[in-house]
Amino acid sequence: MNSRLDVRGRSSVNPRRGNRAVTGLVSGVCAALLVTGCGGDGQEADSVPGGWGTLKTKGVDVSYPKGSDGYVERGADERSEHNAAEAVRTEDGTIVSMITVQLDFTDADSAEEAAIAAEAGVQLGATLKGEKDVQLAGTDEAKRVDFEFSSTGEEDTPPKGTRLQGVILTGLDSREKTFAVRIDAKKGALDDADLSKIIDSVQVH
Fold it and tell me: What pLDDT digit, counting tens, does each position of 42-81 carry?
């Protein structure tokens, strides 16, 4: 498994490619997960549930459940150099879910171009499940990319070959720079209700 798709979130979306748009990639045809993020069109994100924390960056914020069974934010010295923010959830020392934020990861003029670049960043062998419009607070245009991939079994990740689900929320912030919020989880480790709340919490600025 390519390390870019490791559940640890190392370079989960390709760094800047140098050209304005990546073309010719296949967009997904139907979403594997039926949860749609709410908010959007400049509105404020839904209120953050009690007991949740928030990953804050200059382009986008996203909240996550905390507590003994929740996520723990990682500092700059712990996370991938490609991530502006990162939180992980572990079970018995194994990372079963991760939320990451990347900023300005590619040159793009639209959410569609950002989604194409995000799709290009998923590892060889991953299965794209769909791309669709999603409403995120603070922006009029955003995309959601769903996919599945296999763990490498390295660096505290689930055993090699374990299937994981990934969701990338992407678009442009107020500075016209790309952002990508990525949520990876071992199947069964993140229920649809919490995934929906995480998506609803996204605030673009």
Answer: 456 777 899 999 999 999 999 999 988 999 999 999 999 9
pLDDT tens digits for 145-161? Answer: 999 999 999 989 999 99
- The CA distance from 141 to 131, in Å, is 13
Q: Tell me the CA distances in angstroms from 67 to 13, 75, 100, 168, one per residue in order.
A: 28, 18, 18, 24
CB within 8 Å of 123: residues ≥ 6 apart:
1, 2, 4, 5, 149
Predicted model pTM: 0.81
